[in-house]
Predict the structure.
Amino acid sequence: MARVAAVDIGTNSTRLLVADVDRGQIGDVERATRITRLGEGVDERRRLLPVPIARVRNVLTDFRRRSEELGAQRTLAIATSAIRDAENGEAFLGEIEWSYGFATRLLSGHDEALMMFRGVTSERSVQPGTVIVDVGGGSTELVASEPDGVRWHDSLDIGSVRLTERFLHADPPTADELGSCASAVRALLSERVPDEIRQRTTAAIGVAGTITSLAALALGLEEYDRDEVHGSKLGADALAEQLDRLASVPLAERRKLRPLDPDRAPVIVAGTVIAGETLSFFDLDTLEISERDILDGAALAAAELPEQEEGAAPPGAYTCC
């Protein structure tokens, strides 16, 4: 058994999982999520900006300390859409490796989809005809299963942060803005998903913070409860109701909705559009919710790393600026 830490440096959030991994089984020790919006402005400028970088650095400082306190033997930090899209993304990832002593991995969109699939299937099998949907901040990953694993996968440049910055400028968003956002999602799905996959899909599993937040809202939870959300079902009608609810109020009111993380409120509407349009595209009525996702896949990958040598952390490990 190995105690590991996995860090997911996403477009909208930075997350930590400390877990015990034993023969492919993941035992959670601690999870943490901070909304850091690293991808702020990346879609337009193609650069990571100083303020979002500082937010991520501060969180990584906390995550490194916590993982050490919990006895993690090795740490893998994965980077996704925002970092791969930014001209200075690889330089920032190299700085993370040097400053915090983490092993790092820059995932392509396809790598991201496959690692997400590995995480989702770490505790369950997935039936043929199932598509797994991961709505992220910068991209959305789709994975279609078959008996022996993955039949098809793709990563689409439609994410909650990206589409908010492109389309949703009014507060609250206008009907025209919402329509343009939905049209962009439908167009890309139609372009990229093969007809064969669309026709064979009979079920869907949704993962990651946008979808789990929507499930918690639909369940009417006062406080977010991972156990309540995991395995729950989010119907298409309930998803449409949440879109109407979220898009009809200004951001200040959206931040007050429980159990939504207030820092996720600025981009949740676009994320809801993506989830709803994806379910509609596959002509499905229900989305099963999974709390296992790419972070769990990263934990499995971390367990395969060589154990760090004592004292291997570089001298700048605790600097955040």
